Amino acid sequence: xxxxxxxxxxxxxxxxxxxxxxxxxxxxxxxxxxxxxxxxxxxxxxxxxxxxxxxxxxxxxxxxxxxxxxxxxxxxxxxxxxxxxxxxxxxxxxxxxxxxxxxxxxxxxxxxxxxxxxxxxxxxxxxxxxxxxxxxxxxxxxxxxxxxxxxxxxxxxxxxxxxxxxxxxxxxxxxxxxxxxxxxxxxxxxxxxxxxxxxxxxxxxxxxxxxxxxxxxxxxxxxxxxxxxxxxxxxxxxxxxxxxxxxxxxxxxxxxxxxxxxxxxxxxxxxxxxxxxxxxxxxxxxxxxxxxxxxxxxxxxxxxxxxxxxxxxxxxxxxxxxxxxxxxxxxxxxxxxxxxxxxxxxxxxxxxxxxxxxxxxxxxxxxxxxxxxxxxxxxxxxxxxxxxxxxxxxxxxxxxxxxxxxxxxxxxxxxxxxxxxxxxxxxxxxxxxxxxxxxxxxxxxxxxxxxxxxxxxxxxxxxxxxxxxxxxxxxxxxxxxxxxxxxxxxxxxxxxxxxxxxxxxxxxxxxxxxxxxxxxxxxxxxxxxxxxxxxxxxxxxxxxxxxxxxxxxxxxxxxxxxxxxxxxxxxxxxxxxxxxxxxxxxxxxxxxxxxxxxxxxxxxxxxxxxxxxxxxxxxxxxxxxxxxxxxxxxxxxxxxxxxxxxxxxxxxxxxxxxxxxxxxxxxxxxxxxxxxxxxxxxxxxxxxxxxxxxxxxxx
Length: 699
Hints:
The protein is an alpha+beta fold. The chain folds into 5 domains: 31-56 and 386-424, no CATH class; 60-67 and 185-347 and 370-383, no CATH class; 73-184, no CATH class; 429-602, no CATH class; 647-699, no CATH class. 33% of the residues lie in helices and 24% in strands. The protein is built from 23 helices and 28 strands. Strands 1, 5, 6, 7, 8, 9, 10, 13, 14, 18, 21, 22 and 23 form a 13-stranded mixed β-sheet that branches. Strands 2, 11, 12 and 15 form a 4-stranded antiparallel β-sheet that branches. Helix 2 (31-54) runs antiparallel to helix 9 (400-411) and helix 12 (460-470) packs across helix 13.
């Protein structure tokens, strides 16, 4: 054994060679078990595919944050123009609501000279036309003004047109009921903006260095952030038809007539062609409207659904419909879908205003259309976490058929289960593994001695020769390919020492044994290091070491060399004095173990002879006898087969008989071997037999 430890770089020591570790599978050639496994595999694959298809959690849904900005001062300047030319019909009918009588209703337009007073015609100022409260707007269509003034001092009478208030004799009152002329032409103008933070991609490396920007857009701006295309808005009618499209950069303006005409209301369940207007009459007993009243008098609530998305469809959320309809729009760019639905009701706004220092007061009741916004939307992003979870579920489920088949094979098949279990479950006992490895190493060494054609090992020519015998029947391999194959095998055998020696022309015993034991669970190098008492054990290894190996190490460490020998044995292992001469103190316990192994290999020669003697006594056939015959027996049989090669007995007596000495070749230096020594390789042992002529032989 070479005591020189090959140099190992720091990279190889702490970072071993990159390799791929794959699981080991056992193939059971059983048609019925294979059918069962395929059936279970199909069931699991079907369930897995159904899980992937039915799972709708791969996309993360996020709702945008939307804000509405209603036009105020700038748009009020145009209200007078919008009221001009409005149509209004006075009504002499009387309507009763909550014990209040609404009669003698006239039409009022915007004030021109601001002369609204006690005896003038009612008119409307700009602040009365559209009232804005945050994101809610109120457009009045009917006013009821009640003015309370004290009686004239001195006369105690009320002014012309005023009446005494019942129960309050010191007050006089006058009531005006009037519609807003041209109220359906009043326009509501607004802009909206939305923003949202996109879903963070855990697989995107940019998020480690760059913060994920927000996605935002404004209806009055031309450049949305996060999209390549601009934002646009679409107004749909009650049937889902596109009415008006508003491109980005333009303010959205909707007149009261447009709002009522395109709004969905309850009566459309019966007649889809009907539309709302200010003159539409309805009855709502639960709201206190017990008789038919025009919408211009009662008012209504109109809800504008502003749905922002980029998915290519907008749902219509009508509270009066059981099914939610979806409208197709352009996908891949932000779109705002506006749908309307109206609910006629008694909508009123009351206000009290002082009119002078004498205690006069004006009570104004305004009925009209209240406009509210419902801001909804939907944006989706791919959820990588959910995809990874689904992939994990798939990988786990796909193992279920293998696990079920495995348990069925090793527990439910009786004697077959015992056989399959023995094949699938590989047991490892270090003591048995070491014993088996040594026995197989001895067999490999015997094969090495048969192949050896060099003083130190096996040459490339011998490998080429044996490969020729193996590949003799393969006519497709020519001599050139045969030689390259031999070179490949020869170089691979020499690589096992991890020592660069390109000049060496042979493969030694250690390399041959390492290659032969490469598929062993316990490799040759691991075996050598396992029995090396000079090797330092790690803490966990020392605690979990097998009891047999621990006892062996303790015995070797505590053992003292014995001065006695057994029955005159002169072998180096049984004779301490000879062992001290052969084995220097500097050699480690590994060399001692290797010499013990060599001693076991030396006994193979004796086993061969005993096997041959037993076979001869049993009178077996010549063919079987030739298989177990030792080399010297083969030589005798060859001489019997060639009688012509015999010599004169007198000459044989004159030949000096050689003295047979069996020694280990490591015990005798090569420089001290006699020149005429003949070294014979035993058939299946590592013995070296040295034949030397006796001292009393003649020249």
